[in-house]
Please model this.
Amino acid sequence: MKSMSTVTRYMEACLLAACTLSFSQALALENSECMECHSDETLTKESTDNILQMELTKSLYVDEAAFNRSVHNANGITCVDCHADIEELNWDDDLPHAATLQPVQCVMCHEESAVEFKESVHMAMRTKGITMTCYACHGYHSVKQMASASVSERMDYVCLKCHNPYQSHDWLPSKEAHFANVDCVVCHSPEAPRHTHLRFFDLAGSTYYQTDSLMEKIGVKAKDFMATVDTDKDGAVNRDEFDDLMLRLKLKNIRTVLHAELVAAIDASAHGIVKQGAQKECSQCHCSNSSYFKAVNFVFTDPDGGLVHHEVDRSVLESYYVSHFYLLGGTRIKLLDKIGLIIVACGALVVLGHITIRVLTVPWRRKHSADSE
Amino acid sequence: MSSKENMLYVHPVPVRLWHWINASGFIVLIGTGFQIRYAESIHLMSLNHAITLHNYIGLIVVANYFIWLGFYFSTGKIRIYVPDFPRLIPQIITQVRYYGYGIFKGDPNPHAMTSQNKFNPLQQQAYLAIMIFILPAQIITGIFLWRIAGYEEYINLLGGIKIIDTVHVLLFFFFISFIIVHCYLSTLGSSMLAHFKAMVTGYEEHH
Model:
């Protein structure tokens, strides 16, 4: 079974190890010690906003529950791993650490992302006096695990904080459909690897299936899903295997279709956002051999927030079960081309046949005409 | 040359206008339709331009459909599309026999055109189905594809965008086939160009 979860977990482990080593000098301060003050919603300080360039009253409150759901907490990163200049807390002082802390150096762990960011339009903004920081997009303490996020979640969480896409895409036909189904990064970071995510949508409940409930209904464990579906054991679900799966779901009275979205992989390359050079050539996507649909995956979310990808053959996108995702040309149903050819050929053959018979029957008509006279 | 007495006024100006706008619109829609569907093989224009042109011409064809609808219903001429039901089946059999046999033998067309009855029963049924069911289906699916997000509710009600596209594409192929047959049948008048001329001048030669 080809699964991204193993890779993801390996990378997470490496990240954790790297961070732990990098910040080995940090004392083993518990998050709970920080939260003694920072759980107070009224805790504020006056500071200068980098983007707005003005004095603001800044909240120092940390939503612990949100932090606990964050990708950093999921990877064991603690407060002082990022706020590395806090070496100790002096509880005898009014303020147990320095009043002004050093900016968090995300690059210490996210070096490759920083390299990509340096080439991005967000870095170029510095020439206009605007400094884009990591947290301007990702937030501070509740940095989400975005790999499993939908297009709308990605847009809401990151891009729409600053951008109104309707103001800058006049050239783009069917804007709403693009914004609903295509991650901004897909076009604005052309080098980022792309996936078409397929999610099971519960028609009865009008919501996406949670992995556990779907597996329970199918009657398999999540880890055995591919072994059950991928009967030829080639590591990908082909069209026949997909049709078998959908038939099995139907027999179990599971009313589902698949919703698809085109998203960028959440890795370093997603930070190389460009404006000039963004993909504007429609035919890159809207053609049957488009590279944008090479990686098609069922997407399941682990209970711990991790993401599991199961490879699917791109021909599955032609299925009527993927009823809400269709790209002109890009995911066209090849069967319709064959039916269309037959329809057009029938018309042409009727005409050609009729002409041929008329030509062949010229002597008959002449004879008939002569007989009549 | 045909004398004026032999000429019958069958195609009023609004009908001819509608017909030729429709014909040219369909040619462009088919061309751009191929470009949109087979962007990797056809390079007549950029996909973006093809979609934009397809949308604009589609809207003209939709508006044009209402010229047809308005004219035929406001004048009551829509009755030329309404079949004479008790005689319909025998008339259809006679007409099919003519196209399938009599025409090769040199028999005259069993349908005698008049301004009140210009379509033979096969034409009448085909045009009625096209104008009341098939073209509206193509228009509605086309409008849905034009503004997918705006009509999402209706699209979902009908089974999703893929169903809508399937209908639109199959009708696209149907219209190509129809135009091929239609153009050929247009050559079967008293002369090869008689029906074409009639659709330009409004007058059809009759005997």
